[in-house]
Design goal:
single chain; alpha+beta; Formiminotransferase-cyclodeaminase, Chain B, domain 1; Alpha-Beta Plaits; Four Helix Bundle (Hemerythrin (Met), subunit A); 4-stranded antiparallel β-sheet; 15% strand
Length: 558
C-alpha cells in the first residue's frame, strides 16, 4: 500500500485568480504530488486547496504554498467573512493510506520547523499536533484573528511553536495533523443569518448560550462570569450561520472534524428538523473541497434504508442517492470524480474500464495478457453480480418479504465482492506484466544476473498470490450463490444457477493459475502452503457448487 497523505492549506485569498493560480502552481512543481481541488470563495475571500502525495513530497509542496502566499498576500488589506490570521491560515495533514496519525504529527512538526526557520513565519500547532492542550482547538489558536496578533507579542502563552515571536504582513500559520475534515454548507430558504446562526448553534458541539431566566436579555453566567452553554446535538461539529450574497441565501457553514462520530447525513437530517421549528426549509447543501467515499456510502445507505428499499445496489446508485438526498448539486454540479477523494486518487483499471466488446477483442488478440487469470477474476465478479441481481429482484416481492433481511445482507455483500473481483481483472494482468519486465532485465554481469533472478522470483511470487487471492474470495461468493438459489425468487432460479456455475469456474480457473505459477518457484514453505490452501479452498467451492446444482435442478425439474 503506497503512503498517501492529504494536505489542505487554506489561503486568505478567494477573489484574485492570478494570486490563487500562482500559489497552486507551486504544487505542480513537486513530483509525485497531485493537486486535487481548488475551491475559492468570493465572500469568504478564502481558497481551500487540496493535494495528495507521498509524505516528503507533500511537505515540500506545502512549504512552497506557504512561501508563495506570504509573498503575494498582505493581511493588512484582507477582508472576508471567514476568520483568519495568516496568508496561509491553516495547513493540516490528513492520513489517507499507508500512514498513521502519528506520521502526520511528525510531518506537521517538520513543516512547522521549516516554515519558522526558512520563511520566518510564526507557526502554531493545533489538533493532534498541538504542543499543549490549550492549542488543540483551532479557534483558540486563532483568537483575535490577524488584527489581534500584535497584542500577543511578548506574552509567553502566545509564543509560537516555531518561528519568530513577531508578526508581519503574512500573519501566522496554524499547522496540524487531523482526521479528515468535511467542510460543508447547508443551504436555507432565507437571507436571515441570525436564524441560520440559531440553527447552527443547536447543531454544533459547543451549543448555544443560555439566557438568564430572570432577565431574558442577558446570558446566564457561572460563578466565574463565564457564559453557560447548552451543548449542541453533535460532537466534533463546528458550525456558524452566515449570509452569502452570491447565492442570495443564508447558510449553516459546518466543519465536521470527525465524520465517523457525526456524519453529514445525520447532521443534515437534524438541520431539517431544527429549521422547521423556525419556519425554514433546507434547500440543499454545498461541499467545499472533497469528501471521503465512506461518508458518501454511509449517507446513501442511510437514505435508502429510510426509503425502505434494498441497500445492496451498485456504488454509483448509492452515491447518487446521497447527492440527491442532501441536495449536494443544488448550487453547483457534484462530480464524484472531482469531489470524492478516492476517485481522484485511483482510477479504474484499463481492462475494467473497457466495453465488453473491447475486452473480448483484447482477450482474443496475440497479447499473452489478459488471459485466464483475468477471466477467472471476471467470472467471480459476474457470479457476485448475479447474486446481487437475484437479491434485488426478490427483496420486497410478494411471497418473499420474509426473506427481505437475508436479501439485503446478501446484496450488500455481493456488491462488495463484485468490486473486489473486478479490480483483480487488472491486477492479474499487471502481475503478469511485472514478471515479463523482470525477465527483460539485463544479465551481462554477475550483479545484473543476481538482480534479475531476485526480481523474477519476487514477481513470480506476486503473480502466484494474485490468483490465490481471487480463489480465497470464492467461498464467500459461492455462499452468496447458494443463498440466491435457496431463498431467491423462483423466477430467477436459472440466474442463481449460473451464479453457482461461474463461482465454481472462477475458483478452478484461479487454481490453474496458482499451479502454473508455482512451477516457476522453488519447493519451499511458501509454495507448499499455497498448494495445500488452494486445494482445500477449491474443494470447498466445488462441494458448495454441487449443492447449488442440486437445488437448482430440483427447482427446475420438480
Amino acid at each position: 500500500m503506497p503512503s498517501i497523505v492529504e494536505c489542505v492549506p487554506n489561503i486568505s485569498e478567494g477573489r484574485n485568480k492570478d494570486i490563487i493560480d500562482a500559489v497552486t502552481g507551486e504544487i505542480e512543481k513537486v513530483p509525485g504530488v497531485n493537486l486535487l481541488d481548488v475551491d475559492p470563495g468570493e465572500d469568504t475571500n478564502r481558497t481551500v486547496i487540496t493535494f495528495v502525495g507521498d509524505p516528503d513530497g507533500v511537505v515540500e509542496a506545502a512549504l512552497l504554498v506557504i512561501a508563495k502566499a506570504a509573498e503575494l498576500i498582505d493581511l493588512n488589506k484582507h477582508q472576508g467573512a471567514h476568520a483568519r490570521m495568516g496568508a496561509t491560515d491553516v495547513c493540516p495533514f490528513v492520513p489517507v493510506s499507508g500512514v498513521t496519525m502519528d506520521d502526520c504529527v511528525e510531518l506537521a512538526n517538520r513543516l512547522g520547523k521549516r516554515v519558522g526557520e526558512e520563511l520566518g513565519i510564526p507557526v502554531y500547532l493545533y489538533e493532534y499536533a498541538a504542543s499543549r492542550p490549550e492549542r488543540r482547538n483551532l479557534a483558540d489558536c486563532r483568537a483575535g484573528e490577524f488584527e489581534g496578533l500584535k497584542a500577543r507579542e511578548g506574552i509567553e502563552k502566545w509564543k509560537p511553536d516555531f518561528g519568530p515571536f513577531k508578526f508581519g504582513n503574512a500573519g501566522a500559520t496554524a499547522i496540524s495533523a487531523r482526521d479528515f475534515l468535511i467542510a460543508w454548507n447547508i443551504n436555507l430558504n432565507t437571507r436571515n443569518s441570525k436564524l441560520a446562526s440559531r440553527i447552527a448553534n443547536r447543531l454544533r458541539e459547543k451549543g448555544y448560550a443560555r439566557m438568564d431566566p430572570d432577565n431574558p436579555k442577558k446570558f446566564l453566567r457561572d460563578d466565574d462570569g463565564n457564559v453557560i452553554f447548552t451543548p449542541g446535538k453533535f460532537k466534533g461539529v463546528k458550525a456558524v450561520g452566515w449570509y452569502i450574497d452570491k447565492y442570495k441565501q443564508a447558510q449553516i457553514s459546518c466543519n465536521l472534524i470527525n465524520y465517523h462520530i457525526s456524519p453529514p447525513h445525520l447532521v443534515f437530517d437534524e438541520a431539517c428538523k431544527q429549521a422547521e421549528q423556525f419556519g425554514i426549509r433546507i434547500t440543499g447543501s454545498e461541499l467545499v473541497g472533497v469528501i471521503p467515499l465512506e461518508a458518501m456510502r454511509q449517507a446513501g445507505v442511510y437514505f435508502l434504508k429510510k426509503q425502505g428499499v434494498i441497500t445492496g445496489v451498485n456504488e454509483e446508485e448509492i452515491i447518487r442517492t446521497a447527492v440527491q438526498s442532501m441536495g449536494l448539486d443544488q448550487l453547483a454540479p457534484f462530480d464524484p470524480g472531482k469531489n470524492i477523494i478516492e476517485y481522484m486518487i485511483s482510477k479504474p483499471g484499463r481492462l475494467a474500464s473497457m466495453k465488453i466488446t473491447e475486452f473480448i477483442d483484447e482477450l482474443a488478440s496475440d497479447s499473452p495478457a489478459p488471459g485466464g487469470g483475468s477471466v477467472a477474476a471476471l467470472c467471480g465478479g459476474l457470479s457476485a453480480a448475479l447474486a446481487s441481481m437475484v437479491a434485488n429482484l426478490t427483496h420486497g416481492k410478494k411471497g418473499y418479504t420474509k426473506y427481505d433481511d437475508i436479501m439485503d445482507e446478501m446484496a450488500v455483500k455481493a456488491q462488495e465482492m463484485k468490486a473486489k473481483l473486478v479490480d483483480y481483472v487488472d491486477r492479474d494482468t499487471d502481475a503478469f506484466n511485472r514478471v515479463m519486465d523482470a525477465m527483460r532485465m539485463p544479465k551481462k554481469t554477475e550483479e545484473q544476473q543476481a538482480a534479475r533472478e531476485a526480481a523474477i522470483d519476487e514477481a513470480n511470487r506476486g503473480a502466484t498470490l494474485v490468483p490465490f487471492e481471487v480463489l480465497s474470495f470464492m467461498p464467500e461468493v459461492v455462499k452468496l450463490a447458494r443463498t440466491a438459489a435457496e431463498f431467491g425468487n423462483r423466477n430467477l432460479t436459472p440466474d442463481a444457477g449460473v451464479a453457482g456455475l461461474t463461482a465454481a469456474l472462477a475458483a478452478r480457473g484461479a487454481t490453474y493459475n496458482v499451479r502454473v505459477n508455482l512451477q516457476g518457484l522453488p519447493d519451499d514453505d511458501f509454495s507448499r502452503g499455497l498448494k495445500e490452501d488452494s486445494d482445500r479452498i477449491l474443494k470447498e467451492v466445488d462441494d458448495a457448487a454441487a449443492e447449488i446444482r442440486q437445488i437448482i435442478e430440483k427447482r427446475l425439474w420438480e
